[in-house]
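Tutorial handout. Part one gives the primary structure; part two gives the three-dimensional structure as tokens.
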Amino acid sequence: MSTPEDPQLPSTVSKVDLSNEPVYWDVPKAQTYGQYLHLEALLGAQQPRSADHDEMLFIVVHQTSELWIKLALHEVAAAMEYLRRDELLPCFTTLTRIGHIQQQMTQVWDVLATLTPFDYSRFRNQLGRSSGFQSWQYRLLEFTIGNKNRDMIAVHRGDANAFAALEAALAAPSLYDECLQLLSRRGFEIPEDRLVRDFSKPYEPHKQVTAAWLAVYHSTATHWDLYALAERLMDLDHRFQLWRFSHMKTVERIIGHKRGTGGTSGVSYLAKALELRFFPELWSARTSL
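Part two.
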């Protein structure tokens, strides 16, 4: 009977060989990775107000969320421009990217959820009255997609630039408004008062708009690009609901039903937002199909 040979262990590499790599060791300061990304400013923006270890987690989670929102706004603006030009293929790519951004925004709550109630209580007083409710970028994103509410901008009066941006977004057509304009250009009967209106007011659903979307769904071969658009809009709305739900449950897990630092009722306030819909007729069409 043969005796198996001793297994040969793989050789250990102690370091990466760079001898054949044409690395640029002398890089002009203005062209370095850190300079391009402004890492000095970015990494210097985390300034905990307490000596507590977990405050850094809280700051980084919220700062990265704001960066993802900034990118989402950038992509929504591009999607709206594609809609105006009736260029739906690049619009689909952009909306798909927004979906992946939303996934990142939702998953960050899993990181924050590692913060226990006791951990958070040790530095919560350092927040004062600051709150995610005051995120002007988040509010701008909601306005731009289609959830308009003038009452929400009062808290931003102290920031002239943010207030102006929110005022402009209130008065401008939203992503959904651009979709309705596209349906109208394609020959669907969209009521005139849904196409030309005071865009600063909340959108009110209309049965003729539902009928237009139903016509798209009933003839997907004829209107395949509008059908694909409708489904991507539903993805966006659905992912927003998942983000809101994850936000609410993370807050409930950490502070229970305490009042929020920004003055809201906390979890009870966040639960109200779960009923919001960006594209109401797309939801109602599903019942009629």
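Part three, for discussion. The CA atoms of residues 125 and 160 lie 27 Å apart. The radius of gyration is 25 Å.
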